[in-house]
């Protein structure tokens, strides 16, 4: 589900560098600040959660996807969550983290 990518800014614990389907070849060292994450066992579990709020092919799918995912993130933030932790990222390996706000991440080394 494309909605998972729209939740915020995604980072991985480093396992992604060994993944042949990684979305790029630049690896950065980044400090992230997530104090109260939503925990999911897998990306698929997050996709299932989002599937409850995103219709599967309305006429304006892309706009609908952005709107509904943005609303879902706003609800999570209002509840006190500040990011997502995926315990076992089946797409890229290892753990993946999503911060809801770009100010929660700082590049330490390129």
| Overall radius of gyration | 14 Å
Query: Based on helices, strands and strand pairing, what is the structural class?
Result: alpha+beta
Unreliable sequence segments: none
The end-to-end span amounts to 30 Å
Q: Order of strands side by side in the largest beta sheet?
A: 1-5-4-3
Helix-strand string: EEEHHEEE
Helix content: 25-40%
Query: How much of the polypeptide forms β-strand, as a percent range?
Result: 15-25%
The chain-level mean pLDDT equals 87
Shape: globular
Largest sheet: 4 strands, mixed
Number of DSSP-assigned strands: 6
Count of runs of 4 or more consecutive helical residues: 2
Protein architecture, described:
With 110 residues, the protein is of the alpha+beta class. It contains two helices and six strands, in the order E-E-E-H-H-E-E-E. The strands form two sheets. Strands 1-5-4-3 form a four-stranded mixed beta sheet. It starts with 8 loop residues before the first strand and ends with a strand. The model has no long low-confidence stretch (mean pLDDT 87).
Task: Give a concise summary.
The protein is 25% helix and 23% strand.
Summary keywords:
four-stranded mixed beta sheet; alpha+beta; 23% strand; 110 residues; two-stranded antiparallel ribbon; globular; 25% helix; 2 helices; single chain
How is the topology of this model organized?
Layout: E1 9-12, E2 29-32, E3 37-40, H1 43-51, H2 61-79, E4 83-86, E5 96-99, E6 105-109
């Amino acid at each position: 589900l494309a909605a998972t990518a729209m939740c915020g800014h995604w980072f991985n614990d480093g396992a992604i560098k060994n993944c042949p389907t990684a979305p790029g070849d630049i690896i950065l060292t980044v400090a992230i600040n997530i104090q109260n994450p939503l925990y999911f066992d897998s990306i698929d579990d997050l996709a299932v959660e989002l599937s409850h709020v995103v219709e599967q092919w309305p006429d304006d799918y892309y706009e609908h996807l952005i709107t509904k995912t943005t609303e879902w993130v706003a609800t999570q933030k209002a509840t006190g969550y500040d990011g997502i932790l995926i315990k076992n990222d089946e797409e890229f390996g290892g753990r993946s983290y999503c911060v809801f706000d770009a100010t929660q991440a700082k590049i330490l080394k390129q």
